[in-house]
């Protein structure tokens, strides 16, 4: 029997065997609506920002944010073709300039919760509407090299600000610990994405979106575990009835947490694992270390594994967050992989007024000869303005 069949059978059996005990912690502050028979028709506060949907036993919360990011530098900026050179017929040579890479996002979130005999019934959705600095091809026709010869056609990718297609980033149903729908892979979400920096995935850029069926068990002693059957997305979409599989365990206490997660890519029969430790050193300081390993680390397999998009066999992260004042937090993250990619990001998140945060961030990346074809060090910067509601 092949390994895919064994894994699929084990995963399905495990999901069938779990009870409805425990509930995943979706939106913070959610309180299940009491099963009263005489709900009033006007809006009643459920607590935690939730309100009863009139005439129902369900509590609803609507939230979100508007965000403006400005990126610059070799690591984060973008190239734009020189328009004057482009339209000047006397000098039709293409020229690219460095320019801003700007992004504006409106994120809309909804969450519902109600009490049932099987535990809290929840839903969560999050949709993005974005206006981005994308790239589009510009074509320049140059004179022929010899009289009567064919003209020379050159195409450049240039900055092109436009609306991006709306995206559905989360839309799932949760009953107890069972979750079904559109989410991000448990391989990232269960342990945490990485540090509290804007650019936390510079050398691990792929492997987020998926539809899934997962179960999370949360014990009273700080122990939790997850099993997730996943479809992947785009080029990582499963190509048979065998799902990608992610599973993990975590132990959390007041001092911090320890955890590990594993992912199996069903398309390429490949594995990846991560382990992470978080420590609350002081009321003002927290630190983390995390490491990852993949089974198919040869450079020709770089983008094959849904759960591992770093270079080589292994990757490591370390980071810290320090509370500077009651309004400002400093964050640092360093990551390094087997292909000799290095990324460092540092920022200060400053809450100007409640609900409005400004985060300037600086980024350094050292390229890999195996991946980028050079080992150049490049810099970039981001400033983020975000109004959450």
UniProtKB/TrEMBL annotation:
GO biological process, one term: monoatomic ion transport
Protein origin, superkingdom: Bacteria
Keyword set, alphabetical order: Cell outer membrane, Ion transport, Membrane, Porin, Signal, Transmembrane, Transmembrane beta strand, Transport
One Gene Ontology CC term in the entry: pore complex
Compartmental location: Cell outer membrane
Mode of membrane association: Multi-pass membrane protein
Pfam family, one: Porin_2
Chain ranges passing through the membrane: none
GO terms of molecular function: porin activity
Signal peptide range in chain numbering: 1-23
Note on domains (UniProt): Consists of 16-stranded beta-barrel sheets, with large surface-exposed loops, that form a transmembrane pore at the center of each barrel. The pore is partially ocluded by a peptide loop that folds into the pore lumen.
General function of this protein: Forms passive diffusion pores that allow small molecular weight hydrophilic materials across the outer membrane.
Family: Belongs to the alphaproteobacteria porin family.
Protein name, UniProt field: Porin
């Amino acid at each position: 029997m092949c390994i895919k069949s064994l894994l699929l059978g084990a995963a399905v059996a495990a999901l069938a065997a779990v009870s409805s005990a425990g509930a995943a912690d979706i939106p913070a502050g959610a309180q299940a609506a009491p099963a009263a028979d005489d709900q009033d028709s006007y809006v009643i506060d459920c607590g935690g920002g939730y309100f009863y949907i009139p005439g129902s036993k369900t509590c609803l919360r609507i939230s979100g944010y508007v965000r403006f990011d400005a990126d610059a530098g070799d690591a984060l900026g973008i190239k734009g073709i020189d328009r004057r050179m482009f339209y000047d017929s006397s000098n039709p040579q293409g020229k690219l300039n460095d320019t801003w890479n700007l992004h504006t996002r409106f994120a809309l979130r909804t969450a519902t919760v109600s009490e049932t005999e099987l535990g809290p019934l929840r839903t969560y959705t999050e949709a993005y509407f974005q206006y981005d600095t994308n790239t589009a091809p510009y074509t320049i026709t140059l004179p022929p090299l010899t009289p009567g010869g064919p003209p020379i056609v050159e195409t450049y990718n240039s900055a092109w600000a436009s609306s991006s297609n709306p995206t559905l980033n989360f839309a799932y149903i949760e009953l107890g610990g069972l979750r079904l729908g559109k989410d991000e892979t448990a391989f990232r979400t269960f342990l945490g994405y990485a540090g509290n920096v804007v650019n936390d995935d510079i050398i691990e850029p792929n492997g987020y979106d998926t539809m899934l069926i997962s179960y999370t068990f949360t014990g009273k002693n700080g122990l939790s575990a997850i099993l997730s059957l996943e479809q992947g997305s785009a080029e990582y979409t499963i190509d048979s009835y065998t799902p990608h599989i992610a599973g993990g365990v975590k132990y959390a206490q007041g001092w911090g947490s320890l955890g590990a997660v594993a992912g199996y890519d069903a398309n390429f029969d490949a594995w990846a694992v991560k382990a992470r430790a978080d420590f609350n050193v002081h009321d003002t300081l927290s630190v983390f270390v995390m490491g990852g390993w993949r089974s198919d680390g040869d450079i020709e397999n770089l983008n094959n594994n849904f759960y591992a998009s770093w270079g080589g066999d292994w990757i490591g992260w370390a980071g810290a967050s320090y509370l500077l004042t009651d309004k400002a937090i400093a964050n640092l993250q360093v990551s390094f992989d087997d292909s000799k990619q290095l990324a460092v990001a540092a920022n200060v998140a400053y809450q100007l007024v409640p609900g409005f945060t400004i985060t300037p961030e600086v980024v350094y990346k050292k390229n890999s000869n195996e991946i980028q074809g050079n080992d150049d060090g490049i810099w970039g910067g981001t400033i983020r303005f975000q109004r959450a509601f």
